Amino acid sequence: MLMETILDLPIENKIFYAVLLFSWTVYLWEAYLAYRQRRIYRSTMHVPQELGKIMDTDTFEKSRLYQLDKSNFSFWSGLYSETEGTLILLLGGIPFLWKVAGTVTARFGLGPEYEIFQSLSFLMLATLFSAFTGLPWSIYNTFFESITLFHWHGFKHPTLGFFLKDAVKKFIVTQCILLPVTSLLLYIIKIGGDFFFIYAWLFTLGVSLVLVTIYADYIAPLFDKFTPLPEGELKEEIESMSKSINFPLTKVYIVEGSKRSSHSNAYFYGFFKNKRIVLFDTLMEDYSPLNKDGEPENVPAEETDTPTEAKAKPKNKKQGCNNPEVLAVLGHELGHWKLGHTVKNIVISQMNSFLCFFLFAVLIGRKELFIAFGFYDSQPTLIGLMIIFQFIFSPYNEVLSFCLTVLSRRFEFQADAFARGMGRASELYSALIKLNKDNLGFPVADWLFSMWHYSHPPLLERLRALGGTKQD
Length: 472
Known about the structure:
This protein has 472 residues and is mainly α. It contains 16 helices and six strands. A hairpin with a 5-residue loop joins strand 3 and strand 4 (275-280). Mean pLDDT is 86; it is low at 294-315. Keywords: Endoplasmic reticulum, Hydrolase, Membrane, Metal-binding, Metalloprotease, Protease, Transmembrane, Transmembrane helix, Zinc.
């Protein structure tokens, strides 16, 4: 009976309820995976035997509790997000906001024929709504993490003023990029004729390349401080390693990532012969703020047959890697470049983008797609992009995301092997352990959760692949 009722529904109703059903199916699947991982956090109370020599009990317990708290927070924030999205669809939130956007543009003397201006108004209102509804969750998440890390590691957590200023700055920068790009994309679709999908794809390709080129030089410095790596042994070693694999390095920067997060990272950017490397200050023990609390302590040497001397022994560093380990991490990152992983990811991304625009061109004329989401009298291009890319393509997007996660893990193993081939296996081994500790990563993962979510292999798998190099 129920099946007959469903089959008798108009096609637009079937589309609407299929979108809702799939959305909740994905949410429940994600919730199930998170439950499996939380069960690991709760049940794994002691350091596994194979980790006994590389992780102390205190660090293991801190990472366990930290990840358990993050998982609990993700459950509630995810439930809220899914419920909010469902209510927006059921209550007609999208067509309502489109009418509000039309009212706003009408105040400036612009009627429905100025669809692009109404689309930009809709986009700004939608991002404002998203920013305000997500603000409490973002505040809690930011200050929960920073205060937790301050309590355990001594990090200076950001003030509320810094957080709000940063959020406003991000919103403004996002609008300055999003609105012009969207207006040009909509215009191209409007005037592009039967082959508009080709022009739209070429336009988004060009925008992507421009943003990748200018991001680190002009956008990222608006939020974080970038300084050139000083002359010295580390810089010389980085230049020498780059030269050995023909990596066209031009500059090396340090970014002050510690003011917003404890997480460590290193990356490169740039096209052709203009490559640059960026190192987070949290990655390097000589630059991490946690290691600048005081001067090295002098520890008397043990008495021997020779005259005793006071030998300077540095304090244990709280965070970061030493120079050989930093070079090993960079060897891994440069491996991505040498093995063509960056180019392969760009090719896959653009093939997917072209396919999506082609399918969009096929589907944009289907009026029932618009009726399904409350647009009975009009078929705005921006709304069509939202419906098709966000809702209709959602099953395809989930499959693609999983495939890219699997591919990413394969690339990570290959980059590790590249660093090992450069003779840096031992240093990379110890660097991975230190970074896992600094980031409070939990080294034990449920196999299904790991398979679905982890773009990087779990710590133990990477250490085993490096050949079981022993570290004290």
